[in-house]
Structure formats: C-alpha cells, structure tokens
C-alpha cells in the first residue's frame, strides 16, 4: 500500500512539473507581442576616421572636401594645426589633413576633429667646408750630382 501511495504522489508531481510551463504562459497574444515600432533604440554614432589632401575649401559655408569626401565643420568641431587651435580658413587646397566625422540623420558628414598635418622643415646639416688644399708644390728639382771619377 505504501508503494502505491509513493507511486501516485510521484506521478502527480511529474504531471504538475510538466504542466507548469503551460500555465505560466500569457493567456493574451498582445502580452507576447514584440515592442511597438515607436520604441527607438538609441545607438551611439561612432566617428569615422579620414585622411587625405584637401580638394576644396569654402570657409564661409563651413564645408570642405578631402579627396571625394564632402565634410562640414560645426561649432563643436575641434580644428588644430600642430596642436594649436585653428580655423577652417587656415586650410588650403593640397594640404594633408586627417580627422574624424560623424554622419548626421540628414546624411551630412559633420567633422568632430580636423588636424592639419604640416611637415616640419628639416634643416640639413652642412658639412664643414674646408678650403681645398692647394696642390702640393712639386719638390724642387735637385741638380744632378757632379760626376766623380774613381781612381784618378
């Protein structure tokens, strides 16, 4: 009789464990619906690096082109030349630049950092110039020795 009670209790416990997942599910399909389309996930916009030569500059409009990339300078853009703050008007066509930009919602590429890569002039050390030595004078010609007679 004890074994029959144990078997019955074990069977009921097993049935309950199998049924629990079904009971815990939502009864309403709307509860299981995915989040609405109005919920937006904010993504941090990553900056894209660039390097190249300035192809055009329009300082009054705040735009310039590096190779084929059209970029815009904003009030938050950090512009430097050799680590010193600069302005877009300091840049000329052909200057080597590097920096980073972020693309705005409207597709504008707004510069976050812009650096002018100026080449520091190299000073070639000149070798000390010593005046060339004058050609050595030919040794003075010594007159031939007078002939001596032996036995005279």
How many extended strands? 6
Helix content: 10-25%
Low-confidence segments: 34-42
Overall radius of gyration: 45 Å
User: N- to C-terminal separation?
Assistant: 165 Å
Name of the level-1 CATH class of the domain at 48-116:
Mainly Beta
Report the β-strand fraction as a percent range: 25-35%
Largest sheet: 5 strands, mixed, barrel
Adjacency order of strands in the biggest sheet: 1-2-3-6-5
- What is the mean predicted local confidence, pLDDT? 76
Shape: elongated
Q: Structural class of the helix and strand makeup?
A: alpha+beta
Give the helices and strands, then pairings.
Elements: H1 2-24, E1 48-58, E2 63-66, E3 69-81, E4 84-85, E5 96-103, E6 109-116
Parallel strand pairs: 3-6
Antiparallel strand pairs: 1-2, 1-5, 2-3, 3-4, 5-6
Summarize the structure.
The protein is an alpha+beta fold and 152 residues long. The protein has one helix at 2-24; strands at residues 48-58, 63-66, 69-81, 84-85, 96-103, 109-116. It has a five-stranded mixed beta barrel with strand order 1-2-3-6-5.
Jot down its keywords.
alpha+beta, OB fold (Dihydrolipoamide Acetyltransferase, E2P), 5-stranded mixed beta barrel, 1 helix, 6 strands
How would you describe what is shown here?
It contains 1 helix and 6 strands, in the order αββββββ. The protein starts with a helix and ends in a 36-residue tail after the last strand. Strand 5 and strand 6 form a beta hairpin. It has a domain of 69 residues: OB fold (Dihydrolipoamide Acetyltransferase, E2P). With 152 residues, the protein is α+β, with helices and mostly antiparallel strands. About 6% of the residues have low confidence.
